[in-house]
């Protein structure tokens, strides 16, 4: 049976509602998700987790709302934070304070600290001596041995051995061995061994070995050093 699909985003929240209404049918199926909701044929995924009724992972979804949307959460033994039953693997040694949460299909390593109201969701992997402080991290990010503070991290890509503060990072570009503050980093271009302050970067160009401040950078041209 063909179906019409209606997708509604509730502005001011992280909720997505998708309703399938069958043609010449009286039934309706509603999914509620605290992030990206994708439906292909009879399979619906929320933050990378299959929430279709036919999936075993749907057992981590309930009708009661939690800090992780409608995912069932438990209290993390080390710190008292909320951990979704949908998560892939959260090491018991990791520290998640009681104001923070790990949702979706995230993976958290044993040395990771998640603090001060941070939310980690999606297919995010955190490993090494990583600290997430007062930040939201979602998408398909891999972060190792890095500090993220008062920032919004989304999209794809990897962050290695870096410090990021008061920054919005989206797109698929990697960040390696860099310090970034008060910036907006998007696009697919990597930032490597650089110090960026108040930078608005987009496009596919890479920044390598540069110290930059108060600039708008776009396009495909690479920047090496301070040239």
Would you write up a description of this structure?
With about 230 residues, the chain is mainly beta. About 0% of the residues lie in helices and about 50% in strands. It has strands spanning about 5-10, 15-20, 30-35, 35-40, 45, 50, 60-65, 70, 75, 80-85, 90, 95, 100, 105-110, 115, 120, 125, 130-135, 135, 140-145, 145-150, 150-155, 155-160, 165, 170, 175, 180, 185, 190, 195-200, 205-210, 210-215, 225. The chain has a 16-stranded mixed beta sheet that branches. Strands 11-14-17-20-23-26-29-31-33 form a nine-stranded parallel beta sheet, with no helix packed on it. β2 and β3 (about 30-35) form a beta hairpin. Mean pLDDT is about 85; it is low at about 1-30.
Please give a handful of descriptors for the protein shown:
about 230 residues; mainly beta; 16-stranded mixed sheet; nine-stranded parallel sheet
List the helices and strands and how they pair.
Blueprint: E1 3-9, E2 16-22, E3 28-33, E4 37-40, E5 43-46, E6 49-50, E7 61-66, E8 69-71, E9 73-75, E10 82-84, E11 89-90, E12 95-96, E13 101-102, E14 107-108, E15 113-115, E16 119-120, E17 125-127, E18 131-133, E19 136-137, E20 140-144, E21 147-149, E22 152-153, E23 156-160, E24 163-165, E25 168-169, E26 175-176, E27 179-181, E28 184-185, E29 191-192, E30 195-201, E31 207-208, E32 211-217, E33 223-224
């Amino acid at each position: 049976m063909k179906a019409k699909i209606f997708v509604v985003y509730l502005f001011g929240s992280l909720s997505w509602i998708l309703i399938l209404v069958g043609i010449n049918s009286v039934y309706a199926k509603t999914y509620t998700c605290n992030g990206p909701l994708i439906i292909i044929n009879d399979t619906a995924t929320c933050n990378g987790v299959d929430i279709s009724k036919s999936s075993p992972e749907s057992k981590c979804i309930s009708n009661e709302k939690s800090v992780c949307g409608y995912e069932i959460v438990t209290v993390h033994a080390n710190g008292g934070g909320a951990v979704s039953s949908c998560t892939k693997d959260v090491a018991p040694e990791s520290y998640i304070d009681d104001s923070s949460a790990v949702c979706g299909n995230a993976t958290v390593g044993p040395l990771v600290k998640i603090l001060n109201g941070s939310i980690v969701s999606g297919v995010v992997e955190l490993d090494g001596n990583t600290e997430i402080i007062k930040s939201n991290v979602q998408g398909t990010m891999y972060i190792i041995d890095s500090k993220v503070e008062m920032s919004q991290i989304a999209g794809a890509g990897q962050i290695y051995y870096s410090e990021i503060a008061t920054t919005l990072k989206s797109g698929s570009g990697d960040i390696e061995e860099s310090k970034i503050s008060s910036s907006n980093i998007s696009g697919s271009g990597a930032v490597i061994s650089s110090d960026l302050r108040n930078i608005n970067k987009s496009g596919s160009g890479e920044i390598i070995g540069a110290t930059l401040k108060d600039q708008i950078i776009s396009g495909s041209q690479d920047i090496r050093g301070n040239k």
